[in-house]
Queue: 4 jobs
Job 1
Amino acid sequence: MRIITRAIWFVLFILLLAFAASNTEPATLRFWFGFAWQAPLVLLLLAFFAAGALLGVAASLGTLLRQRREILRLRREIRAKAAARELPAAAPPPAEG
């Protein structure tokens, strides 16, 4: 199974390398106020893909952290209930007589 996975990754790498090699001509990205960025097309694509991935991770980070806090709170609650069940009822003091 590991060989198949590595073969798929290798083929994917070769395909992406061929894509990058065929898109090396310069492209100009124009921003506001006359600012322009000129770079190879594949570099611009990679930069915007990475920026999109980072924005996606940042957008989901709040939900992820909230869920982790909720899981910790529920685990503590379960532990507290289990500990309360395990404690034996207080036995009456021995009678002196």
Job 2
Amino acid sequence: MTTSRTIAVGDIHGCRAPFELLLASLAVCSEDTLVILGDVVDRGPDSRGVIEILLKLKDQCQLICITGNHEEMLLDVVDNKMPLQDWLSHGGDETLDSYGKGAAPARLPEEHVEFLRTWEDYYETPEHFFAHGNYLARKPLEQQPWHEMRWESLRNFRPGAHCSGKTAILGHTSDKQGEIFNLGHLICIDTYAHGGGWLTALEPETKKVWQTSIRGDEREGKLPPPRWQ
């Protein structure tokens, strides 16, 4: 009998090769839920390739994609809500180049743009909730200002345990040493894939961790124990 899994994946940032390697290790099936924590685009070399993989994954598992601040910037540029240069200065140039050197936002395939528009602010299970950047501990999940929170780094403030009692699984705040940040009530798995760290996947229920790198390295293990703030 197949046991379904819920697995979160940290910020991919255009790193197609380690993402493919990670998926090979995960071997997700139709019963599994794969939660992508946002920021799949920008900074890395192949944002287009990552989006194409995600579109295929929709037919292979239960795919949940959370909107990151980088997806928000892309959509704001497409919708003329943000100056192009503002996005380019945050890695948007690498995204556009993945669609053809010097490509303009108008060159982005409609299928890709509309796919990004369907992404969620958060996702929850009985024991955990998944979001991109941060949260307010005393506000219910459905009342969170997610537009602001997806920009808010854990370096600016570290919230306490959420009022729901659920453990938060987050991305966005990259650890430049490639380490998972675990406070017990809050776990951040942005481990700096595009900058030479690791791309991390976590199964919260079992605490199993899979990691791959742009160097082609792979490793598996367990979630490190919680540390003090």
Job 3
Amino acid sequence: MIPQQLISRKRDGLALAPDELRAFLRGYVAGEVAEYQMAAFLMAVVFQGLSDPELSELLDVMVSSGAVLDWPGLDRPVVDKHSTGGVGDKVSLALAPLLAEVGFAVPMISGRGLGHTGGTLDKLEALPGFRTALPLDEFNRIVRKLGLGMIGQTAEIAPLDRRLYDLRNVTGTVPVPPLMATSIMSKKMAEGLDALLLDVKVGSGAFLPDPGAARRLAELMVRLGEGRGIRTVALLTAMDRPLGETVGNALETREALDCLRGGGPGDLRELVLRQAAELVLAAEPGASGPDGLRAAMARAEEVLDSGRPMERFLRLVEAQGGDPVAVESGAWFTRAPVVDVLEASEAGTVTGVEPRGLGEAVVAMGGGRTALDQEIDARVGFRVLATPGQVLQRGQALVEIHAASPEGAELGREAAEKSIAVAPGGAGSGEALPLVVERIGA
């Protein structure tokens, strides 16, 4: 196998034999294929895609490059969810403890921010001391004891995917369906799951804005999951506006905690409950039926409002090195040094809140990565007070900008001004996507 020849053939759209692709991928893991060669290969995939045999080989090598968890003797179904990435998407932080309290085990292995979207790990690490890098044996003990654990990929779990994930983030090769599908599913297959919920974002702030492309990605991942024995369902969900009110790691973490306390924005709460209900139906065949979804959502809502999921999350914080007292009291949260407010310059109606520009601004303000080893500032971000269809008065607050410096605040203000569209008078707000656009099952 000569790397440059394989790259050239993929660039030209020629088929790669499974054994040569396997040798190339394993050579990358072993350090025999250079980072720049893998970056070139990924860009070739952007333009040429992967055939079904190539896709299957990539996924199998990803999974087999590390350990695969199993759960002998566990008395509850093992479930998880994954989002393709959205602006303001903090669902996992509230959903995982809710699922554990409903009666599932949730060994959640998540990622960091990717492109203009935030990552679950970065949000968790906004809590001082919270450890997302745990040995698998410790992770296993925590999941068995608490019903959940929330970590990032270790060197033991799909290490090939971990390296490709970081490389894609800095080479412009993120929004590629075969690469997205294999990255997501390799981690989930390594978790030893019974059921999986996929949240595939669609709209201007998604990696795949086109509904058709998002649907094809969802169908591909459902097929991969079901074909390997995991009951899998996908929801296409709206990303034509931010989810919830906040964008930025610490701000989103605080909002997710509000949801666990029974509060938080209505759209965040609704999506958490819907995803919990879908996993109830997937993992418990007896829960299905003509009224199954409604009953499952009611069950999840009762548990969420009981306060028990918050208590379970606090136990998780303690088990993974954080301070549950500080989390419960809110003392963990550190306000950004500069907080500016963008106000409406005239009366009118909000016709749109563009999420992508806000997500990109968080990265530029220091809340995301433009290099693999970059430290991020969890404090920076936005609190979006304007919602599509809202009627505004002149001087009304539209967005809070949380920044590390006056320069960052100015950058954030410029992004917010471009992202919030206001029409004079009582003009209609335009057509927004429903929160759940479509459900895709086996």
Job 4
Amino acid sequence: MSEPITVLIADDEALIRAGFRVLIDSAADLRVIGEAADGIEAVRQARALQPDVLLMDIRMPIMHGLEATKVILDNDGASGTGPLPRILIVTTFDQDEHVFAALHAGASGFVLKDTRPEELLDAIRVVARGDALLTPSVTRRLIAEYTRRPPARPDGVLGELTPREREVLEQIAAGRSNAEIAAALHLSVATVKTHVSRLLAKLDCRDRAQLVVVAYQSGAVSPV
């Protein structure tokens, strides 16, 4: 049996942390290894415990979740020698005007606070294996935010992509899994994985969530 996915919970409300802990620990393949009540503590715990996934609230005292995400995922910072955690933002979204910036900072995905328990558990698993995909409702609004004010990105980077890699990038931006991309493009899943790995390297992205951002920011993909 493989080791369980380790989770750190960062939320300023004790009842929410307790609820998440009970839910996550009820799954055989998941295990909570720590809690944090503010962003500073989230940074400390992430560095000390090195969880696979960090469940991060946006609005917390001392240091909010967005800033904590930036600090934790800053490769130039004192983040330790271990692997960086995948950060899953938990938000009400409608009230968090800057949630799109968390993805730009390196967060691997989002779930809404009113999501169903089983969907939260699945989201943790998805993020942990690097196949970070955003929920459709969040994706639509996030894309709208990015396309209103996309930051500049050198065209030369996208120019390095092959036509097939561009096709795969478009499929990723549409939120499709490797199996769905393979079926749509008549490729094997192994070939799709190879293309995804090359896209991550060429576009200097950590995971699929960042590939979605790059796809829309660059204009390589346009909102439907």
